[in-house]
Structure formats: structure tokens, C-alpha cells
Automatic annotation (TrEMBL):
Keyword Transferase applies: no
A Pfam family of this chain: ABC_tran
Transmembrane segments: none
Name the UniProt record assigns to this protein: ABC transport system ATP-binding protein
Length: 215
């Protein structure tokens, strides 16, 4: 696998409509081995920034660069491929498919990468055990708690051992002990050479990051 060493936002601008301008000329560099907290008041644009960095939204100006290569304006299929191979994304609301089991939710991204299901399930079960949700593998998202759903979303994001992990309020619904497990896993990703960006209000998570950027 290509080892990604750097994620960069260069002069990013984004607006949902002419009167909802969220970012203007926003730049930052995220290096491998870092856990960067993006903070700011509600509505400042943290989630929007994560969607831009995660190539789910296209900026109206500026670029996102992965290892110096501009990727924000690639065709949809190329961005989707890059997302599947290099990025793990944890959404603020977990965004699980209510019709599928927890295990299927975690392993579904393996399909996009054409990874065989059996090894994906082994890895998914390892992650579930680590986050304490292994007993919920056959449940549907409607049958688990918000904190469990958030941990399931983390398992899904980490399934492919991505080089870049973007997490929107990853400790938002978690008690201290579970948040600590999540933070340790994010540190492990960074220690292995990954780049981690978290959008958060959580003072404890912020204190455990290696750098803080305020929006
Ligand atoms: N789909 C959308 N359409 C229109 N406006 C939107 C949309 N999503 C977000 N916004 C607006 O864009 C701005 C930034 O929203 P965003 O969710 O990125 O902020 P945030 O900093 O993550 O907030 P929070 O901390 O409350 O999650 C807000 O004013 C929000 O109302």
C-alpha cells in the first residue's frame, strides 16, 4: 500500500449557498504521526471541513492534497477509490445502515475495495472486541446504544487500516473509559505513521491531541 505522509488543505473555500459561506481561503498541513484537533464553536464549519478533507464535498476554491497531489477535483469515481483505500471516516452521527447488521455495516466498505469477506470479518471481529461491541455483531443499529453505534462507526473506519483517519466528534457519546479506548486507538494509528484529524468540542480529547487548530 502507498504510505501517505501528508494531508494538506490549501486555500479551501466552501459555501452551501451564497449566504452560507463556511470556509474562505483556509489552509493547514497535517503530518503523519499527528493527531490534530480541529475545534471551534457550533456552526463554525468543523464537519464541513472534515467532509472536504475526506473528499466527500468538493471545495468551490482551493485544493486538498494527499502527499502533494491535488485530489479535491478528481472525478467522483477516483475520489471514491482514494477514499476507500486511504481514508477512514467517522461521521458525527455514526451513519450506520439501519437495515443491515453491525457486522455487515463494518465490513461493507471491504466490498468497495474488493477485499474478500472472510478476512474482512476476522479483522472486523478483532476491532469489535477491542472496542467492546463484539457481542452486538448480529444486532441492527436500532438495537444498540448511541455510544455503541459510535464505536461500530470507528470499527468501520479502521477496517482497512487507513493512512488518514478523519473523525467528527469520535468521543461525543462515550463515557470516559470508552473514550479513552478510542483515544488510545487513534494514538496507535498515529504511532504507526497514520495522520489523524478530529473535529471536537471535548476538552479531554483536545488535551490528548498533539496539536490544536481553532476554526
Ligand atoms: N447541508 C447543509 N446545507 C446548508 N447549510 C449547511 C449544511 N450543513 C451545514 N450547514 C451550515 O454550515 C455551517 C457549518 O456547519 P458545520 O456542520 O460544518 O459546523 P460545525 O462546526 O461542525 O458545527 P457543530 O459543532 O454544531 O457540529 C452552519 O452554519 C450550518 O448551518
Amino acid at each position: 500500500m502507498t504510505v501517505v505522509t501528508r494531508l494538506e488543505a490549501r486555500g479551501l473555500g466552501f459555501a452551501y449557498s451564497p449566504d452560507v459561506v463556511v470556509l474562505e481561503g483556509w489552509s493547514a498541513l497535517f503530518e503523519a504521526g499527528e493527531i490534530v484537533a480541529v475545534t471551534g464553536p457550533s456552526g463554525a464549519g468543523k464537519s464541513t471541513l472534515m467532509y472536504l478533507l475526506g473528499l466527500m464535498l468538493v471545495p468551490r476554491s482551493g485544493e486538498v492534497l494527499v502527499d502533494g497531489i491535488p485530489v479535491a477535483h478528481l472525478p467522483d469515481t477516483d475520489r471514491a477509490r482514494l477514499r476507500a483505500s486511504e481514508f477512514g471516516f467517522v461521521f458525527q452521527d455514526a451513519s450506520l445502515d439501519a437495515t443491515r447488521t453491525v457486522l455487515d455495516n463494518i465490513t461493507e466498505t471491504a466490498l468497495y475495495r474488493r477485499t474478500p469477506r472472510a478476512p474482512a470479518c476476522v479483522r472486523a471481529r478483532e476491532l469489535m472486541a477491542r472496542f467492546g461491541v463484539d457481542l452486538r455483531a448480529e444486532h441492527r443499529p436500532g438495537q444498540i446504544s448511541g455510544g455503541q453505534a459510535q464505536r461500530v462507526a470507528l470499527c468501520r473506519a479502521l477496517l482497512a487500516s487507513p493512512q488518514i483517519v478523519l473523525a467528527d466528534e469520535p468521543t461525543g457519546n462515550l463515557d470516559h473509559a470508552t473514550a479513552e479506548i478510542v483515544i488510545e486507538v487513534l494514538h496507535h494509528v498515529a504511532h504507526e505513521g497514520g495522520t489523524v484529524v478530529v473535529a471536537t468540542h471535548d476538552p479531554y480529547l483536545i488535551s490528548r491531541c498533539t496539536r490544536v487548530i481553532a476554526l
